[in-house]
Protein backbone atom coordinates (compact mmCIF):
# COMPACT_ATOMS: atom_id res chain seq x y z
CA UNK A 1 0.00 0.00 0.00
CA UNK A 2 1.32 3.41 -0.92
CA UNK A 3 1.65 5.96 1.82
CA UNK A 4 -0.53 9.06 1.77
CA UNK A 5 2.64 11.15 1.50
CA UNK A 6 3.40 9.59 -1.90
CA UNK A 7 -0.07 10.45 -3.24
CA UNK A 8 -0.31 14.11 -2.26
CA UNK A 9 1.58 17.28 -3.19
CA UNK A 10 2.77 17.91 0.33
CA UNK A 11 4.55 21.16 -0.39
CA UNK A 12 1.31 23.04 -1.03
CA UNK A 13 -0.48 21.39 1.86
CA UNK A 14 2.35 22.09 4.28
CA UNK A 15 2.50 25.68 3.02
CA UNK A 16 -1.08 26.14 4.25
CA UNK A 17 -0.43 24.26 7.51
CA UNK A 18 -2.93 21.50 6.71
CA UNK A 19 -0.65 18.46 6.47
CA UNK A 20 -1.73 16.80 9.74
CA UNK A 21 -5.41 16.97 8.83
CA UNK A 22 -4.93 15.81 5.24
CA UNK A 23 -2.64 12.98 6.36
CA UNK A 24 -5.18 11.75 8.93
CA UNK A 25 -8.01 11.81 6.39
CA UNK A 26 -5.89 9.98 3.79
CA UNK A 27 -4.89 7.31 6.32
CA UNK A 28 -8.50 6.74 7.34
CA UNK A 29 -9.62 6.52 3.72
CA UNK A 30 -6.91 4.06 2.77
CA UNK A 31 -7.76 1.79 5.71
CA UNK A 32 -11.38 1.47 4.58
CA UNK A 33 -12.49 -0.63 1.67
CA UNK A 34 -13.86 1.23 -1.32
CA UNK A 35 -17.61 1.77 -1.65
CA UNK A 36 -18.16 -1.15 -4.02
CA UNK A 37 -16.40 -3.56 -1.68
CA UNK A 38 -18.47 -2.33 1.27
CA UNK A 39 -21.66 -2.74 -0.75
CA UNK A 40 -20.74 -6.31 -1.76
CA UNK A 41 -19.90 -7.13 1.85
CA UNK A 42 -23.23 -5.73 3.02
CA UNK A 43 -25.10 -7.80 0.42
CA UNK A 44 -23.21 -10.94 1.48
CA UNK A 45 -24.14 -10.26 5.10
CA UNK A 46 -27.80 -9.30 4.58
CA UNK A 47 -28.81 -10.74 1.20
CA UNK A 48 -30.84 -7.58 0.71
CA UNK A 49 -30.46 -5.25 -2.27
CA UNK A 50 -32.68 -2.79 -0.41
CA UNK A 51 -30.08 -2.61 2.37
CA UNK A 52 -27.38 -2.00 -0.24
CA UNK A 53 -29.36 0.84 -1.82
CA UNK A 54 -30.03 2.36 1.61
CA UNK A 55 -26.31 2.16 2.37
CA UNK A 56 -25.46 3.79 -0.97
CA UNK A 57 -27.88 6.64 -0.31
CA UNK A 58 -26.51 7.18 3.20
CA UNK A 59 -22.90 7.21 1.97
CA UNK A 60 -23.74 9.61 -0.84
CA UNK A 61 -25.45 12.00 1.56
CA UNK A 62 -22.34 12.32 3.74
TrEMBL record:
Source species, domain of life: Bacteria
Protein name: Uncharacterized protein
The organism of origin for this protein: Funiculus sociatus GB2-A5
